[in-house]
């Protein structure tokens, strides 16, 4: 009778799986970052340039430190994605406004003057662009394919 010999390859398998995971997280966060930047509305370029990625502790994160990124993703006022935006108009000082696309009220640029004679744009919100959500939708099938490719390369 032949002797059966078991060989423990668990350390090598775990190492290969770890390698696949790390490479996949790195690749997918790069794809997601690039697509998010491509999807971003460009006015001054500050928000587009604020997107970044981080891979650590078995997690990959794409995000922005810019407050405007939140408004670009979810909208404000009447245009808030979840319907929870401010319901009354607000006013943005004309002086010092850096954007090329001026704030509007019901689709029209309206300038009003305060008691102090200063000019303000009247606005009822900002429409969302959803750069991150749309990037996720675009990148998801590519991420799945990349995982399959890495599994074939490293586990076979």
Description:
The chain has helices at 10-39, 46-50, 67-74, 131-155, and strands at residues 51-56, 59-64, 90-93, 110-113, 119-123. The protein has 156 residues and is α+β, with helices and mostly antiparallel strands. It has a domain at 1-76 and 132-156. The strands form 2 sheets. The chain has a 3-stranded antiparallel beta sheet with strand order 3-5-4, with no helix packed on it. A hairpin with a 5-residue loop joins strand 4 and strand 5. The longest helix is centred in the N-terminal third of the chain and has 30 residues, at 10-39.
Question: Could you outline the blueprint of secondary structure elements for this entry?
Answer:
Layout: H1 10-39, H2 46-50, E1 51-56, E2 59-64, H3 67-74, E3 90-93, E4 110-113, E5 119-123, H4 131-155
Antiparallel strand pairs: 1-2, 3-5, 4-5
Helix pairs in contact: 1-4
Care to give the gist of this entry?
With 156 residues, the chain is an alpha+beta fold.
Order of helices and strands: HHEEHEEEH
Helix content: 40-55%
- Number of helical segments with 4 or more residues: 4
Rg value:
24 Å
Q: Which structural class is indicated by helix and strand composition?
A: alpha+beta
Query: Distance N terminus to C terminus?
Result: 31 Å
Major sheet details: 3 strands, antiparallel
Shape: rod-shaped
Name some characteristics of this structure:
156 residues, alpha+beta, three-stranded antiparallel β-sheet, two-stranded antiparallel sheet
């Amino acid at each position: 009778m032949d002797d059966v010999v078991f060989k423990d390859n668990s350390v090598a398998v775990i190492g290969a799986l770890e390698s696949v995971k790390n490479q996949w997280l790195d690749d997918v966060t790069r794809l997601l970052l690039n697509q998010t930047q491509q999807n971003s509305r460009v006015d001054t370029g500050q928000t587009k340039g604020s997107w970044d990625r981080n891979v650590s502790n078995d997690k990959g994160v794409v995000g922005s430190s810019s407050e405007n990124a939140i408004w670009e993703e979810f909208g404000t006022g009447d245009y808030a994605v979840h319907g929870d935006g401010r319901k009354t108009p607000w006013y943005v000082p004309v002086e010092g406004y850096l954007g090329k696309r001026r704030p509007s009220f019901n689709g029209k640029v309206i300038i009003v003057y305060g008691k102090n004679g200063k000019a303000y744009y009247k606005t009822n919100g900002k429409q969302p662009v959803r750069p991150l959500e749309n990037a996720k939708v675009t990148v998801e099938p590519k991420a799945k394919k990349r995982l399959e490719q890495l599994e074939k390369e490293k586990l076979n």
